[in-house]
């Protein structure tokens, strides 16, 4: 690869991420067959670890909790401009068409973080968005944060339910009229998500969670999942809930589920030491999902009204169902568990509730019937 510069290698990876084939990439650069062969070897080595490097400059990311699942661009301005030029961030229309409920959730999380009094701490990463009227400058720049301008653009993002009711190009035109930065911000919200989130159909939902807003949530890259599986063979695993206020999930989906104990990110106390806090009991994690807000537990019947496809409220509570390694590192203090090893916790499912209401307070993931239902859903997703 001596005849290919460092930045060019990054461009190759970037083009590949933009779904261009190897032959197209070679044609773009006019490479020789020898160089093409080198590119192939390089690609074979790098594709399994794409998530660990910037898709443009090929420099390794530095994340607080290790690498994430999806590839991403770093915050260097040259890389942001190149990323924008390659068109990798132009997939908003496709995302709204195929995963509108997920986009709806991502926007809600972004809004919650931006409106939080802790936004200077938790609204991370801050957007890197190219100015559509001046492609050589950043309209939103992490080095020059402007939360008021960001809030104005977010307020102009059309509701996702409106986007699904007509031509996306027409909706984009409407957004551009309201605020020229609204659509670029929506593109950033979608493309910066580094976790794999899919809305679960009713037939594959966990019935005992009593919400129609259920998602598959995977954020661990292949290397972490491999380490998790190795540890699982040695020590076994179980399932537990992790509750966190919705304002924190904007960062969690992009930076990972981190050990926030004794850091500026910590919102609740760390009475049982440093680590990721979990619980097998739903009510305990539901308690962490709100910020000192009273929760209303629902009594569900089979005749309950069908919930809307999209989120109707700004008052949202959410918890994740995680798989955790049951090694001696897992500290159990009654129904409050603390895992100091981040590699030993992987998110699997995500549940959202509206208007301060949450599901059954008495769910215990250690009950055989609950474990059986969890495994049933996992089998339908992997089978």
TrEMBL record:
Residues 162-375 form the PARP catalytic domain. Coiled coil: none annotated. Its EC number is 2.4.2.-. SUPFAM superfamilies: ADP-ribosylation. It comes from the Eukaryota. It is an enzyme of class 2 (transferase). Transmembrane segments: none annotated. Keywords: ADP-ribosylation, Glycosyltransferase, NAD, Nucleotidyltransferase, Transferase. GO terms for molecular function: NAD+ poly-ADP-ribosyltransferase activity; nucleotidyltransferase activity. Pfam families: PARP. InterPro entries: ARTD_PARP, Poly(ADP-ribose)pol_cat_dom. Belongs to the ARTD/PARP family. This is Poly [ADP-ribose] polymerase. It comes from Esox lucius (Northern pike).
């Amino acid at each position: 690869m001596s005849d290919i510069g460092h930045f060019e290698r990054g461009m190759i990876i970037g083009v590949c991420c933009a779904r261009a084939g190897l032959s197209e990439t070679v044609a773009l650069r006019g490479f020789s067959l020898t160089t093409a062969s080198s590119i192939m070897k390089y690609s074979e080595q790098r594709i399994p670890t794409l998530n660990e490097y910037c898709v443009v400059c090929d420099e390794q990311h530095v994340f607080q909790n290790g690498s994430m699942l999806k590839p991403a661009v770093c915050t260097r301005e040259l890389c942001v401009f190149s990323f924008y030029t390659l068109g990798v961030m132009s997939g908003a229309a496709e995302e709204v068409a195929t995963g509108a409920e997920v986009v709806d959730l991502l926007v809600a999380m972004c809004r919650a973080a931006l409106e939080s009094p802790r936004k200077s701490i938790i609204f991370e990463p801050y957007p890197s968005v190219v100015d559509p009227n001046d492609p050589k400058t950043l309209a939103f720049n992490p080095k020059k944060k402007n939360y008021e301008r960001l809030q104005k653009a977010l307020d102009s993002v059309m509701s996702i339910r409106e986007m699904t009711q007509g031509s996306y190009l027409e909706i984009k035109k409407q957004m551009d009229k309201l605020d020229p930065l609204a659509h670029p911000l929506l593109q950033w919200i979608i493309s910066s998500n580094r976790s794999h989130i899919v809305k679960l159909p009713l037939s594959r939902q966990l019935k005992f969670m009593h919400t129609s807003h259920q998602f598959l949530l995977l954020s661990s890259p292949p290397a972490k999942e491999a380490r998790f599986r190795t540890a699982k063979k040695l020590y076994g695993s179980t399932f537990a809930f992790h509750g966190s206020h919705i304002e924190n999930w904007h960062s969690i989906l992009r930076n990972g589920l981190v050990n926030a104990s004794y850091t500026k990110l910590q919102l609740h106390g760390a009475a049982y030491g440093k680590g990721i806090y979990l619980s097998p009991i739903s009510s305990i994690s539901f308690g962490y999902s709100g910020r000192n807000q009273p929760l209303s537990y629902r009594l569900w019947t089979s005749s309950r009204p069908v919930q809307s496809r999209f989120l109707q409220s700004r008052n949202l509570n959410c918890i994740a169902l995680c798989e955790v390694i049951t090694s001696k590192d897992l500290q159990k203090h009654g129904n409050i568990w603390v895992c100091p090893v981040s590699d030993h916790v992987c998110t699997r499912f995500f549940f959202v509730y509206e208007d301060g209401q949450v599901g059954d307070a008495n769910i215990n993931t250690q009950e055989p019937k609950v474990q059986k239902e969890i495994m049933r859903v996992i089998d339908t997703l992997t089978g």
